[in-house]
Amino acid sequence: NSSSITFNKTLLKHAAVSQPGFLGLKSNVKSSELVSSRRKRVNKNKKKNWNRHSDIHDVEDFLEDIRHQERTTGGLLSEKPDDSLFFLDVEAEPVKAEKGKRRVQRPLRIDLILQHDSMVPAPKNVTAYQQPNAKKLRRIAQRAEQLAAKGVLPRRQRHLLSRRPAEKTVKKAEANNNPDRDFYAMWGEEKVTDSADPWYLQQTGKKLVQRPEKLNQKPSVLPAVEVIAPGGSYNPDFLSHQALLQEAHDVEVQKQKQEDKLQRQLAFRKEDRATEVQTIISAVAACLYEDEDEAAAPNEDEADSALGAIAVAEKKTERQRKKEKAEKMKTQQQQASRRQTERQQQLFQLRSIKSSIKQQELQTKARQMKRKARQEAQKALPRRLGKLKYAQDLEVQLSDELAASLRQLKPEGSVLKDRFKSLQKRNLIEPRERAKFKRRLKVKYVEKRAFRQIT
Amino acid sequence: MGGTQKKKFERGSATNYITRNRARKKLQLSLPDFRRLCILKGIYPHEPKHKKKVNKGSTAPRTFYLLKDIRFLLHEPIVAKFREYKIFVRKLRKAYGKTEWSAVERLKENKPTYKLDHIIKERYPSFIDALRDIDDALCMCFLFSTFARTGKCHVQTIQLCRRLTVEWMNYVIASRSLRKVFVSIKGMYYQAEVMGQLITWLVPYQFSHDHPTDVDYRVMATFTELYTTLLGFVNFRLYHSLNLVYPPKVTGEKRDVLSVQKLAALSASLARVVSTAEEDDAQLDAFPTEEKVEAREKEQMQLETQKKIFEGLKFFLNREVPRESLAFVIRSFGGEVSWDRSVCIGSTYEATDETITHQIVDRPNVDKSYINRYYIQPQWVYDCVNAKVLLPVEDYFVGVTLPPHLSPFVEEKDGDYVPPEKLKIMALQRGEKPGDDDDDEEEENDDDDDDEEDEEENEDDEDEAEEKNLKEMEKQKSQGKSLQVKVTPGKMKMENPVRLEQEEKAEEKRLAIMMMKKKEKYLYDKIMFGKKRKIREANKLAAKRKAFDDTEKAKKKKTKN
User: Fold this and answer.
1) Contact B156 A182 (CB under 8 A)
2) Which of B42, B210, B363 sits opposite A414 (nearest CB)?
3) Strand (E) positions, B22-148?
4) Cα–Cα separations (whole angstroms), residue A369 to A355, A365, B526
5) Model confidence pLDDT, tens digit, residues B30-71
6) CB–CB of B185 and A411 under 8 A?
7) Rounded distance, CA B176 to CA B331, Å?
8) How high is the ipTM of this complex?
9) Contact A247/B at CB under 8 A
10) Alpha-carbon A147 to chain mean position
């Protein structure tokens, strides 16, 4: 009843307050509202105006009040039992709170902020707990459980168990120089690529590129291993050893000749250098002959000029021209007749002509043979394939270096070097030298300060 | 004028060649990689005939390759491997630099490698091609197997080379293909005949190791890489042609470390795939006899006997002789060989074995405790092999000055100088015993010299006696007296059929020469003059040698006196 009374009261209040121009006690009313811009009469039958011009703030206040009660106390106060609202205070006088250091710990502000500020619990999100097809899945799980209890495995597991274990086919790549590598039959067994259709191979990209024919020719006619001359035996026959020494000697002589030639070409000639005596003589002679020359020279010049003047002479006369022509004809005739007689006489010289032709032919043939022989010899020589020229060194042991027995033999030269040179000789690689260390910038030597004081 | 004019160096040889740097850039490889690729594929630089044309007017010495070859190189799958390797090196270096050891391990495990099998198949399409090129391969493999395993070049390469050379030597022993041996100052030259191909290779001495600095090791290592692969495949094929198990096994043993070492010792016999009761020597079919077939049969018989010169002989090698070489040679000709147990594994009998026939010694003096065996120097074995006949052992006793070791690779033509030692050997080959005079001359004893002088005197005496007789008879006849000659039963003069043949031939030759025309005779005289010149030179050399021998003898006499 009290609530209904208050409700009626508030209704009346509302009616009064809602009148325009009502001035309440708390007059914090805005000036715009005093001069209200509202229409005096509004048609409340239109749907548009049900929302705009209906006044439900009293209902709203009531509802707000109810919500407030629920927020703060967890339910309507009117429906709460008395015990929760009131209590009888039967306790004695409270004992004085102990003063001292024990103060009540206030809760942290952050905890306060994080607590719920209303007693109304948050609504539960039903969709979060919803599972599509929950019933169906539940049924399936139950069925699986039943089957598992019986001992029947699902199909997927059965397949997994029946599958063969995976074979590890990861082959570690074997290096080419592995000492335990194995070899297989390479020649005499046809691979797929040999016997398959060439069109198929070409289309699938499996066709092997053909090796050019020229690569199958050997770059040199020399044999791979050249045996040393018989004088290179560890216990050689006297004459063959001498022959080998002679060869080595020849090579050295050639080298020496080259050096001497260079020396000679660069040497200072004695004739170029004039000795002191000669310089004096030549100076004196120069002075002596100078006067004579001066006297002689001008006369000659005059004579020459005079002759020159006469030489620019008159034109040729008719007679002279005729004479010249006649002479010319004569000489021509003579020559023609001479040629004819020569030709006639050549008939009788046939034999000697034949022999001379034969000689020439022989010569040309000899020259051809020589050239061919030289070309063949050239083939055996190493080609010039790079910057450096090929240099061969002979291995030979001098007579006093020859060993008395196989045990005391000291090997000459190294097979490694011999093989390297042989590869160069056969034009397989170009002659190479060890790269020298070239400095781009010059090194400057500076003494340390300490040393400078000493020295 | 204008566009239709031909420009220089745009066609012909100038476009067929390409310089090395250009080729390298075309392939996008570094210079060492490019070199390695060229060596592996067998692509060599060429010298053009007209250098100026190719070099666009300059004569600077450049290395040229054929453009076709370089284009062919572009299709090689190994080029990709080289690039992968370069990247691998870069990653590895980075990982090392950042000290990420797990990354280093992982990278090293997955190191990119390449195989050369397809290159071998491409370069040597048939087995005979491969056999022709095997000389070089053998030399390189033997050379590398003697290197010290210091790590300068891959130790794996050295091991592989050793294995392959051991396999090759075992094959030669099993097939009895060794023909010639030459011991030189550089190393030992061997020649074997395999499937009709003559293969020569050079083996360095074990104790020579001066590593020269001007040899490019990388190039040699690349060649060896290729050649080891080639030799491996060739070995496989050769072993299968003899029905031997490959990789080789000792008969009746499993293939483990010990047996591998035994194989290396060259004293064990190899296991066969199909055990044969008898040796399958191919018998020549019996064709109707023709001259050539007969000759070939003869040759075949000779060859068979030559292959077995050491059969039945038992050798023992002292410590100071080159064991591997001698074991190889002796076993290739059917002999049995052994050595001291402490030298190497695989010795089959000890020095105390009574049945040893020859002991190879190289010391100046040795105590000869066993009577029934010869103590000889190692050159005897090599000389016997070259002469294809067992030479007399006396020349090779311990302490004796050896005869010179002649080269079997020298073929002397008619008229050339032949050293007297070789003549002796040829005589031995023919089956004649060396003349007594020669023997007497060789021995250096005064007694023998005296004997020789006595013999000469005897001969002279005989001649003189004959002459005297004749003179007397003539005198008697001139004096008109009847000779006191009796009719004695005639002695049959044994006609030497060989000599008769020779005389007939000489007669025919003389007749033919008389019948020649002038021009032909002129040519013939010229040829004979040339030949006689050779003979004259040979005689000169022989005289020189005799002079030298005499001086040597005189010296020795002096020292003895």
Assistant:
1) no
2) B210
3) 64-66
4) 21, 6, 19
5) 999 999 999 999 999 999 988 898 888 888 889 999 999 999
6) yes
7) 9
8) 0.76
9) no
10) 64
